[in-house]
Structures are given as structure tokens and as C-alpha cells.
Write a structure and sequence with these properties.
Structural class: mainly alpha
Oligomer: single chain
Distance between the termini: 48 Å
Number of domains: 1
Strand content: under 5%
Order of helices and strands: HHHEHHEH
Number of helices: 6
Largest sheet: 2 strands, antiparallel
Strand order of the largest sheet: 1-2
Radius of gyration: 19 Å
Number of strands: 2
């Protein structure tokens, strides 16, 4: 039988010291600097543009798609950050998740607009491919250039199948939920 070591007061104190140091560093080197303002502007602009462009008659369906995308993006982003594949030199907030404006707004909103506008699978797959290429070879390098994203052992092209799969799986999940819902008369 494998023994487990309980979380101790010392562990909690060490975790708090690390969190406090992260917050202190954020307060002195990140918040209100150009990159921080840039991320905030991207977040606000994304939300504004999305609200203007979203089909409000399909809001439930599109937001459900966004929720799946947000979950996938945050999980994969945290995994990559934890495995030191990449790093975020600037965060909107000093705690989880990193790069909040892009992870919680920009990327999911782009995915949701593709979901909204490209209803057939053929057009959706083409648009998703173009989006994945743009994320990998335009937006990621631009984020590195601006200084809000830093690749460590990651290569831009690694993300191509991942960006594509996130959109496809999100569409499949929403389609399945709506299919179950309509078959039960809900």
C-alpha cells in the first residue's frame, strides 16, 4: 500500500510565499506597463467586437461552444506552462490562469465566430485550418515579438493540430448536446 503525505502547514506556508512573491513581482514589473495595457486592450476589444458580431438568436449555443473552448485552452495552456514549454512574461492578473485576456476572451471568441459563421462541416474545417495557421504562424510570433509570450521548448508548428482539434472537438460536443436535447424534446 502506498502511503500519502498529507498537505502540511509548512506546505501551505511555502505555497503562500511563492504566491506572495509572484504578486509582488507582478505589482512591481508588470501591472500598468505597456504589455499589461496591451493585454487589457486586447481583452476589452475582443469582448466588444464579439458582442457586436455574435448572433444573439443563437447565443446559448455559441456560448456553450465558447465554454468548451475556454476549458480546453486553459487546461492546455496550464499544461504547457507547467511543462515549461512556454512562459508568459506579462499577465493581466498575477494568479491562474496566465494570459487571461487571450485565453478567456480572444481565442474563444474567434473560435465561436468561426463556429457561428461556418455551419457546414466543410466550410468549418476550412475556416478552422486557416485559423490554426494564423494562430501558429502569425499570432504566436506576434505575441513573442510584443513580449507577452515566450517559447521555451515549444515550436510554433506544434500548435497547428492542437488549435485545429480544439475547434473541431468543441463543435462536435455542442452538436452532440443539441442532438440529445432535440431528440428528448427538451
Amino acid at each position: 500500500m502506498q502511503s500519502t503525505v498529507p498537505f502540511t502547514i509548512i506546505d501551505a506556508e511555502v505555497q503562500w510565499q511563492v504566491t506572495s512573491a509572484r504578486i509582488e513581482e507582478w505589482m512591481t514589473t508588470e501591472v500598468f506597463h505597456f504589455r499589461w495595457w496591451f493585454l487589457l486592450a486586447v481583452l476589452c476589444l475582443s469582448v466588444y467586437l464579439w458582442w457586436k458580431m455574435v448572433d444573439k438568436s443563437r447565443l446559448n449555443e455559441i456560448v456553450l461552444n465558447m465554454v468548451f473552448i475556454i476549458i480546453a485552452v486553459i487546461v492546455l495552456d496550464e499544461l504547457g506552462d507547467e511543462l515549461t514549454l512556454w512562459d508568459y512574461p506579462t499577465d493581466l492578473i498575477p494568479l491562474f490562469p496566465p494570459l487571461t485576456g487571450i485565453d478567456l476572451a480572444t481565442m474563444p471568441m474567434i473560435y465561436s465566430l468561426i463556429y457561428q459563421h461556418f455551419r457546414t462541416w466543410k466550410s468549418f474545417l476550412i475556416a478552422s485550418t486557416i485559423m490554426a495557421l494564423a494562430f501558429c504562424f502569425i499570432l504566436e510570433p506576434l505575441s513573442v515579438y510584443i513580449g507577452v509570450y515566450q517559447t521555451l521548448t515549444w515550436r510554433y508548428y506544434y500548435g497547428l493540430p492542437i488549435y485545429f482539434a480544439i475547434g473541431v472537438i468543441g463543435k462536435l460536443l455542442v452538436g452532440k448536446i443539441y442532438s440529445i436535447s432535440s431528440s428528448t424534446g427538451a
